[in-house]
Structure formats: structure tokens, C-alpha cells
């Protein structure tokens, strides 16, 4: 069971980060050249938001809770008072996860939906997307650190 939960967690995390990387490095440079780039960005954003933010982030949270229990043996709701190096790394990873949720929600459901209305919204949306990608990469770093002992 632990292997299945971890596999789902890794697949969804790969989709989340891979999707952001794909959009930033492949899709955006191409779509910007299209005559209807605004509509294309809006449509892609809505679809990715559904799969990445609405479905993906809750799945990552739930599978993450199971992983805390299965992999570390810690109580997913009672480890906050523990100060071991592994737990400190886990706390950082969880803090970054909650930050990425906030950034994703603000980006997807406010600025991203209004990016076509003004350059200000467009720039803020772009900055939030880049910040979220950076936070996601940091989450991967701390996940790897946890798998290697957490220190």
C-alpha cells in the first residue's frame, strides 16, 4: 500500500511541476506568437487549473499525509512538536506546499482569469506562475532530502 500511495504522489507531483515547466519553456513561447494568444492562454490555464490545482494539489496533500505515516512512521497530525532534523525538513516541505497552494489559488482563480484585461494583471499572473514554479522546485529538493534521510 505504501508503494502505491508514493507512486501516486510522485506521478501527481511530476504532473504539477512538469506541467509548469512545459508551459513556461515550451507552450508560452509558442502561444505568444499566435494571433489568438489570449484565448489560448485562457483555455490552457482553465484546463491546467482543473487538473493541477483543483485535483492535483488535494491529491498531493492526501497522499503526502499517508506518506508521512508510511515512510517516516510519524503521526501526520502530531509531529509538529518534534525537532529532529528529518521533521524539520518535513516542516519546511509542508510550509512550501501550503505556500504553493496559496500561490496557485491566487494565480489560477484571480490574476490568471483577469490576465487578458490589463498588462498589470498579466504581469502579476506571470510573476505568480514563476514564483510557484520556483517553490515547486524547492519542494522537490526537500522531498529528495527527505528520501535521503532528511538532514
Helix and strand topology:
Blueprint: H1 2-31, H2 37-72, H3 85-114, H4 119-147
Helix pairs in contact: 1-2, 1-4, 2-3, 3-4
Structural commentary:
With 151 residues, the chain is mainly α. The protein contains 4 helices and no strands. The chain has helices spanning 2-31, 37-72, 85-114, 119-147. Helix 1 (2-31) packs antiparallel against helix 2, helix 2 (37-72) packs antiparallel against helix 3 (85-114) and helix 3 (85-114) packs antiparallel against helix 4 (119-147). The longest helix has 36 residues, at 37-72.
Summarize the structure.
This protein has 151 residues and is an all-alpha fold.
Major sheet summary line: none
By DSSP, the count of extended strands is: 0
Number of helical segments with 4 or more residues: 4
Approximately how much helix is present in the residues?
Answer: over 70%
Radius of gyration: 17 Å
Strand content: under 5%
How many domains in all? 1
The general outline is elongated
Descriptors:
151 residues, mainly alpha, single chain
Amino acid at each position: 500500500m505504501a508503494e502505491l500511495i508514493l507512486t501516486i504522489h510522485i506521478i501527481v507531483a511530476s504532473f504539477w511541476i512538469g506541467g509548469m515547466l512545459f508551459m513556461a519553456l515550451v507552450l508560452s513561447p509558442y502561444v505568444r506568437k499566435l494571433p489568438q494568444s489570449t484565448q489560448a492562454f485562457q483555455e490552457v490555464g482553465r484546463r491546467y487549473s482543473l487538473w493541477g490545482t483543483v485535483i492535483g494539489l488535494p491529491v498531493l496533500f492526501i497522499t503526502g499525509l499517508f506518506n508521512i505515516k508510511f515512510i517516516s512512521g510519524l503521526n501526520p497530525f502530531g509531529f509538529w512538536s518534534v525537532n529532529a532534523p528529518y521533521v524539520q525538513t518535513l516542516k519546511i516541505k509542508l510550509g512550501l506546499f501550503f505556500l504553493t497552494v496559496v500561490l496557485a489559488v491566487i494565480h489560477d482563480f484571480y490574476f490568471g482569469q483577469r490576465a487578458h484585461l490589463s498588462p498589470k494583471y498579466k504581469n502579476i499572473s506571470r510573476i505568480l506562475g514563476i514564483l510557484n514554479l520556483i517553490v515547486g522546485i524547492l519542494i522537490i529538493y526537500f522531498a529528495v532530502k527527505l528520501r535521503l534521510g532528511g538532514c
